[in-house]
Structure formats: C-alpha cells, structure tokens
Backbone:
C-alpha cells in the first residue's frame, strides 16, 4: 500500500485508541466506520475510568523512553482534536517520613522545578502549609477522559461518522482497537487491574493533578472542576473487572486523607475498576493479526500514547511505513 | 547450593516478583540474576491474575508462592491451599503479618499456621524474626527451613541484628536458613552469605532499582562472593595489627 488514495477503513472499538485512530484516519480523508457494541465510549472500556493525566515527565519515573517522547506531543494533539486540555502542570508531594521517595522520584525524572512550601502555596493555596517540599512539572497537562472522548466522538459525528454496533458489509481494512477484548487474537495481552474513585469535595480546590508518593500506596488526584476529583489508582496484576475492593478503597482514601484531611468529608460519587491492556514490556504495539491491523497494549498510558499510535497507524495505512511500535510475531518475520 | 525439603535449588539467590516496571524487565532481571527461586504473591493477584502467573511460570525457575498480606492463621491457610491448587506446588512461604507499619511477623499466629500447614503436607518456609525461641517452635511445628528477616520488608536497611542472625546460624547449624526481607544492597546479601546463611530472598532492592537488571546481576555477584568467602574460612577479626610481612631478618638498622 504505497498510494495515498482514500481507503475504506473499519475501526473496531470506541475506547481511547479507537476514537483517536478514527479521528486521525478520517482527518486524512479515509472513509472510516467506527464499530463498538455499546455504540460509543462507556464503562465497558478501561479508558472510561482513566485519570486523564498527560504527564510524560512524571511517568518516566517508571516507564521507558518512548512514553516520554510520544507523551509530549499528545498534549497538543488532544488540544487540537478534543479541547479541554488544562496546561497547569503536575505537583508531586510526599509525607514527611517518605521524603526519600521524593528524592528518588527527582533522581529519575526531569522537567521539574524543586519548590518549597511558599511556592507550593502560591500554586495550590489549599495545600499551603501542608508540605514544605514538592516537585512541579510545569509542562504537563490533564484532561477529563470522558469529555475528551465525547469531544472526539462529536468531531467524528461532524464528519458524518457515527458509531455502528456491527461490522459493515464492505468493511475495507480492519483496524482492531478493542483493548483487552482483543485477547482472542493477541495471546500476549494481559490485564492490569486499576481501581478509582470520584470524590466531591467542595472544600478543596486544585488546579492541577497532585501525586502523593508513598512506598506502598502512591495515589494521584486529578481535579475535574466544580469540586470533583478523580482519585486513583491501584495497579494489580489481575484482569478482574467490575467492583472495587474494600481494601483498595481504604488505601486510596487513607492516602487522600493524608494529602488533605478535608477529603475525609468528601462524598464518594463513583467507584470504578477495570483492567488495562498490557503486553509483557508494558509498551504498546501496532501489528498484524490475521485479517487486520491492531493497535493495543497502552497499559496505563492510554491518553498519553493513543495519539502517537493513531498517527503511526495512519502513516502506515497511507505509506506502508513501518511504525515505531510495530510488532511482528516469529511466523511473520 | 541450598537444599530445601530435599530439593536442591540452582542458586542461593531467591527473588520476589512484585513492583518491577514490567514483566519483560522482571524476566530479564531473573536471567541476569541466575536466581533459582521466584516468590509470587497470590492474595491480591488470585482473582484474575492467571496471566501474570503464567508469565511467572515461564521464567523457568521454581515458584515459591507466598501468603503476603495475610494477618490471620485462617487467611494464611486458605491462601496456601489456593496456591497449591493454582501452582501445583506444596511449597509455601508463610507470612502472617502482625504489625502493619513494620510488616513484622505475628510470630504466635505464624507458629500455629506452620503447624497446621505442615500437618496438611505443606513444605513451609516461614518468614520469621531471628528470635531463637520462635525459630525453635517453628522447627517443632514441622518447618525444615527458616527465613528470618534482615530488616522490615522493603526497608532496604540490611541486617539489623547481625549478632542475632549469627547466633541463629550457630544454634541451628543443620537447618537451611534464608535471610528474607530488608536487603537493600549487594553488600547486605554478601554479608548474609558470609555469615553462613544458605540463601537470601529479596525483591524491592532489585525491582525498584533504577536499573533492575543491573542490580540483579550485582546481587548475583555479591551472593557468589559471600558464599565463596564463607567456604574459604575467613580469618577472625582482631584488635591488634598483625603485620603481613615478616620483620625478622630485615635490615632495620640500615
């Protein structure tokens, strides 16, 4: 496939990967059909439960280099295609006795300013006096995942692309973005369970995500506006979905309470649990399986890496170029 | 090489499988370490964690399931049975946590659980303190291996009570002893081996290192060095200098 002629492409799955792929492909003039049994994004996909942090510098603490490189371009992509991106940076703090966690985090990341209590109080007045040290990553951003997916869906609708619940007769090229549901064609894919809470706590206002480092229970809080916060997230080697466990809720809430006691009075608006699709190296892959291309394994970096994958996928369909995240099985070599 | 319940393992280095950046890095760290045993936690992973267990089974080392996160005899016994069923092994690293902050063993519940599991045919590896009486009770309960802590789990503090560990070695010369938990640096691992311990078990020091694979290799070298030193019969330390070059016959008046 070396021509740039418009093609008929059917994208399977309307999670963050499917929506970004459909957006990128239709933006380049391809005739895209988007298929999802639920007729759109929702709780059946793990991107519904995500934090929406666009935090490549922070993630680099425990992720590999491609996450840092591609994550940076994701911020602009989301701004361009969905809007609603808040570019207020990220704050990283730790409780007094875990100060070494902050040192370790600083050693393994860059792109931050090490700040003291006064500067912290300027940035987030409600955290003033609670921490005397923090790391501020000014170039990071965050979004509301559900709003972002709705934004992409609206953009597609404006191009005349509605989500269908079944494959069209003339599907053209198939692009499989079904996440963990694609284990039927991707045996290496595993689930990594994450649990989250949505809290309403009008007593606290934050302008940016705050990460509280802890040797056992690291958490983050992402402000959703109007006193609503997403609190996440556990990382458990399990593909169990559905309800949260008491232990995880206890751990997450205790950590939030330690960040600020006002969270003790918060309303629990929602709880959620799902499993992130991941390959053994926790890096995403684009590849071919049977009759289709696939893009999958975004692990905890759905919003951070989906734009890069979508662009690589579209480049591949346009020019045949081998994507950076290309993966070949032994029998394809 | 250490012999546990009649089975010789390939290396005195035992590694945990939690907290690695990815299963691929975990597997590379195991290859670099030559570790003979991998501990796996079942309590949180059991519901739907089969994919991860399958990856661990693919490491090609013997799996030692543990009861991490259990606080009572009943929880630990149930988890041990689940592990036997899922992994087909009667080895169980028995952890019964008594103090949440330090993750210190509840030694009373530990002895009870060890007795019950041993009677049910399990080969119990108890995570214990270096207390001589507790260790004696665990042997009475049917344990044929002891795994005293060096320091609290994940603390990286090393060997907090070297005298106690040395006394334990001396008290039970024929029991396989493993320093479990607290090792943060290769020098800690080497020291445990120099003291005559049969093996060391560690996780965080490798998994959370900036380069887990390089740290796994460093731990392997340290364990080898410590074991070789022990076998070489090290000298006793002493207060007075002992010159290593003979002085008699030297022309000291010249």
Residues:
């Amino acid at each position: 496939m070396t021509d740039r002629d418009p093609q008929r492409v059917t994208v399977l799955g309307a999670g963050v990967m499917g929506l970004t792929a459909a957006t990128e492909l239709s933006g380049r003039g391809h005739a895209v059909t988007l298929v999802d049994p639920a007729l759109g994004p929702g709780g059946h996909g793990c991107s519904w439960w995500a934090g929406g942090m666009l935090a490549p510098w922070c993630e680099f603490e425990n992720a590999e280099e491609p996450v840092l490189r591609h994550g940076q371009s994701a911020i602009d992509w989301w701004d361009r295609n969905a809007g609603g991106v808040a570019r207020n940076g990220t704050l990283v703090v730790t409780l007094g006795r875990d100060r070494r966690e902050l040192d370790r985090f600083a050693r393994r990341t860059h792109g931050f300013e090490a700040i003291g209590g006064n500067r912290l109080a300027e940035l987030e007045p409600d955290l003033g006096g609670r921490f005397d040290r923090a790391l501020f990553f000014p170039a990071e951003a965050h979004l509301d995942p559900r709003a972002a997916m709705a934004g992409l869906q609206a953009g597609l609708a404006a191009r005349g692309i509605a989500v269908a619940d079944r494959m069209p007769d003339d599907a053209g090229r198939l692009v499989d973005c079904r996440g963990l549901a694609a284990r039927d064609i991707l045996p290496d894919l595993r689930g990594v369970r994450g649990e989250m809470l949505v809290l309403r706590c009008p007593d606290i206002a934050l302008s940016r995500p705050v990460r509280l480092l802890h040797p056992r229970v690291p958490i983050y809080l992402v402000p959703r506006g109007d006193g609503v916060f997403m609190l996440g997230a556990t990382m458990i080697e399990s593909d169990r979905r559905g309800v949260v466990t008491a232990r995880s809720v206890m751990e997450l809430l205790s950590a939030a309470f330690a960040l600020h006691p006002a969270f003790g009075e918060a309303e629990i608006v929602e709880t959620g649990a799902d499993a992130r699709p991941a390959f053994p190296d926790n890096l995403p892959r684009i590849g071919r399986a049977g009759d289709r291309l696939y893009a999958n394994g975004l692990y905890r970096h759905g919003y951070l890496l989906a734009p890069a994958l979508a662009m690589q996928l579209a480049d591949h369909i346009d020019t045949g170029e081998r994507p950076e995240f290309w993966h070949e099985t032994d029998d394809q070599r | 090489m250490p012999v546990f319940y009649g089975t010789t393992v390939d290396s005195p280095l035992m590694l945990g499988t939690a907290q690695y950046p990815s299963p691929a890095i975990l597997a590379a760290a195991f290859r670099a370490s030559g570790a003979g045993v991998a501990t796996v936690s079942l309590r949180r992973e059991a519901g739907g964690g089969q994919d991860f267990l399958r990856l661990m089974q693919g490491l090609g080392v013997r799996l030692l399931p543990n009861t991490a996160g259990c606080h009572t005899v009943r929880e630990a016994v149930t988890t041990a049975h689940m592990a036997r069923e899922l992994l087909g092994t009667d080895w169980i690293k028995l952890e019964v946590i008594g103090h949440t902050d330090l993750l210190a063993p509840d030694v009373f519940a530990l002895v009870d659980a060890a007795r019950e599991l041993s009677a049910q045919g399990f080969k119990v590896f108890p995570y214990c303190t270096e207390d001589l009486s507790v260790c004696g009770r665990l042997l009475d309960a049917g344990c044929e291996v002891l795994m005293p802590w060096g320091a609290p789990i994940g603390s990286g503090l090393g060997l907090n009570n070297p005298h106690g560990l040395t006394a334990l070695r001396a008290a039970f010369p024929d029991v396989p002893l493993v320093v479990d938990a607290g090792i943060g640096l290769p020098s800690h691992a080497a020291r445990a081996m120099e003291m005559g311990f049969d093996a060391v078990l560690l996780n965080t020091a490798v998994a959370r290192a900036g380069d887990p694979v390089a740290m796994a290799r460093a731990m392997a070298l340290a364990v080898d060095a410590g074991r070789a030193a022990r076998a070489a019969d090290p000298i006793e330390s002493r207060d007075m200098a002992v010159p290593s070059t003979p002085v008699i016959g030297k022309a000291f008046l010249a």
Notes: Chain A has a mean pLDDT of 93. The two ends of chain A are 19 Å apart (CA to CA). The interface with chain B takes residues 62-64, 107-108, 190-191, 193, 215-216, 236-241, 275, 278, 280-283 of chain A (CB under 8 Å). The CA atoms of residues 200 and 267 of chain A lie 5 Å apart.
